[in-house]
Amino acid sequence: MTDPKRAALRKFIDPLRVEPGSTVILPHGFDPRHTAGYVAKADADEALRSSIALLAEYQDRLSAQDTYAVLVVLQGLDASGKDGTVKHVMSGVNPAGVHVRSFKVPSVEELNHDYLWRYARALPERGAIGIFNRSHYEEVLVVRVHPENLERQRLPSIQRGKSVWQRRFREINEWERYLVDNGIHIVKVFLNVSKEEQRRRFLERIKEMRKNWKFSAADVLERRHWDEYQQAYSDVLSNTSTKWAPWYVVPADDKWFTRLATASLVVDALMRIDPQYPEVGPAERDLLAKAKAELEAEG
Ligand code: AMP
Ligand code: MG
After folding, report:
1. How far apart are CA 78 and CA 150, in angstroms?
2. How far, in Å, CA of 195 to CA of 77, rounded?
3. Distance of alpha carbon 147 from alpha carbon 158, whole angstroms
4. Residue 89, burial from CB neighbour count under 10 angstroms (0-12, 13-18, 19+)
5. Nearest ligand (C-alpha, residue 151)
6. 257 CB neighbour count, 10 Å cutoff
7. In this structure, are residues 76 and 138 in contact, taking their beta carbons and an 8 Å threshold?
8. Mutation test residue for ligand 1: of 109, 132, 134, 223, the one with most atoms within 8 Å of CB
9. What is the C-alpha to C-alpha distance for residues 268 and 271, in angstroms, rounded to an integer?
10. 214: part of which helix (H) or strand (E)?
């Protein structure tokens, strides 16, 4: 922890963390416009570039070590910047080592299984970085705001009562603990966009023809449930920020800041893992020497 780069990074991301056991009532305590002292995009460009370079370097080591994986859980309302964040943060890394998975309305096959099944199948393998663009948290967000989703899951009666959300929080926490214990490091990011900024982004998507494809009429219907989503998110942050997998609330009204903060969180996770290139032992070194001699003899 004496590394000054590491200390600066922690100073930057620590204020975004939801302390395990604390109670969150959005929007209190988390300003969507916070930019940690950066004033404009240009100030942050250099920092973003260096984070992305670090990410690429660490990813190579993660892959070589082949022991740990990183799972980035990206949550946020429509137009909070999830897709753009994935695109920018992962721009410098080797695509072979990153898997992005987006979760939509569950299919018939998915509904035929327990609710965590489809997320478990999409986990990154050792050595890889996996990104969940929406995640198992939708099971306590959209499913809670629109209970007809729960009906479709055909649950046994014990799972249907009022305590279903508390039960799911516990199950998710336990599942994540199991994953962390087994080498899957989890980085949970909530992109915190304000209602006014969402309105502005929707309008932009409608007015600019090139952005029309991004807009869906359903988005405006979802927006009507803004307060219910804020409540559901508050409950998620209060109940599932754990020592082993804490939540980070990333301000999302300035896209450049969202990208810098998210990249920094992934870099921090990789620094904690601190993956090392495997050491070559005497037996392997012997084999390398023999192979070298053989190749050189051909020349
Ligand atoms: P998008 O992220 O814009 O591509 O939209 C994906 C849609 O799938 C969103 O409207 C989500 O609310 C919805 N969705 C994601 N996961 C679930 C889930 N587990 N149950 C129901 N709807 C979901
Ligand atoms: Mg959408």
Report:
1. 21
2. 10
3. 16
4. buried
5. 1
6. 23
7. no
8. 134
9. 5
10. none
Summarised one tens digit per residue, pLDDT across range 238-284 is 999 999 999 999 999 999 999 999 999 999 999 999 999 999 999 99
Cα-flanking dihedrals φ and ψ of residue 223, to 5°? -60, -30
Structure tokens at 2: 């004496």
> How confident is the model over 144-192, as pLDDT tens digits?
999 999 999 999 887 777 799 999 999 999 999 999 999 999 999 999 9
User: Which of 103, 139, 152 is the best mutation target for the ligand 1 pocket, counting ligand atoms within 8 Å of the beta carbon and taking the most?
Assistant: 103
Do residues 192 and 179 make contact, with C-beta atoms less than 8 angstroms apart? no
19's torsion region: left (phi>0), alpha (psi -120 to 50) or beta?
A: beta
**What residues pack around ion ligand 2 (CB closer than 5 A)?**
78
Cβ atoms of 260 and 48 within 8 Å: the answer is: yes
Residue 104 CA, ligand 1 centroid: distance in Å: 4
124 upstream amide cis, omega within 30 of 0: no
Q: Which residues contact 117 (CB under 8 A, 6 or more apart)?
A: 110
- Amino acid identity, position 230: Q
| Counts for the chain of helices (H) and strands (E), in that order | 13, 5
What is the DSSP annotation of 221-284? Answer: HHHTTHHHHHHHHHHHHHHH--SSS-EEEEE-SSHHHHHHHHHHHHHHHHHHH---PPPP-HHH
